[in-house]
Specification:
Residues 2-24 have low confidence and may be disordered. Strands 1, 2, 3, 4, 5, 6, 7 and 8 form an eight-stranded antiparallel beta sheet that branches. The protein starts with a helix and ends in a 5-residue tail after the last strand. It is built from two helices and eight strands, in the order αβββαβββββ. The protein has 171 residues and is mainly beta.
């Protein structure tokens, strides 16, 4: 192979790597506005994500029995055993959300990293926690913080969120 051909191939590979961004890096959470994220209903919890679906904030009830019995506390300081609270990085994080039928060619969530939410409060407002589908429940998320793998604490902020299909599940 000639020197010119090798050089052309190397340039093409460099352009391809630059266009693809190399290895995917997590989005800078400091730049996100919690109140401006999209919300996703379904299940027992509150689910927020970027429009590109590369960052997801997931606050899911860990104990469904507490919901069914109406005993889920209306306020919790995170972390709390009643809540699975994480921030995920990846691609298509809400693909097929609350959908039990995966069609050919549809994307599936690809979680590359998951960090724990290590601070803040969640306060449930509105209806009863044990309401049936389709229920509606709101929450105030205050002063949420996440801890990155390097032990850096990142302030996610506060927001009012609503799950307008509380208690509904795919299937």
């Amino acid at each position: 192979m000639s020197y010119t051909a090798r050089r052309s191939i190397a340039a093409a590979i460099a352009l391809l790597v630059a266009a693809c961004g190399g290895a995917a890096q997590p989005r800078a959470l400091e730049e996100l506005e919690l109140a401006e994220l999209e919300t996703y209903g379904c299940g027992y919890g509150f689910w927020l994500g970027t429009p590109e679906q590369d960052v997801a904030i997931r606050l899911g009830v860990a104990d469904h029995e507490a919901v069914a019995s109406g005993e889920l506390a209306r306020e919790a300081t995170l972390p709390d055993e009643a809540w699975q609270a994480t921030v995920q990085h990846g691609r298509d994080l809400f693909a097929n959300w609350c959908d039990d039928v995966l069609e050919p060619g549809e994307p599936t969530p690809d979680v590359t990293e998951e960090w724990p939410i290590t601070g803040g409060t969640i306060t449930l407002e509105g209806g009863a926690v044990d309401q049936g589908c389709p229920g509606e429940l709101s929450a105030t998320l205050a002063d949420l913080e996440v801890t990155a793998p390097d032990d850096t604490t990142i302030d996610l902020g506060s927001a009012e969120v609503t799950n307008d299909t509380w208690g509904c599940f795919a299937g």
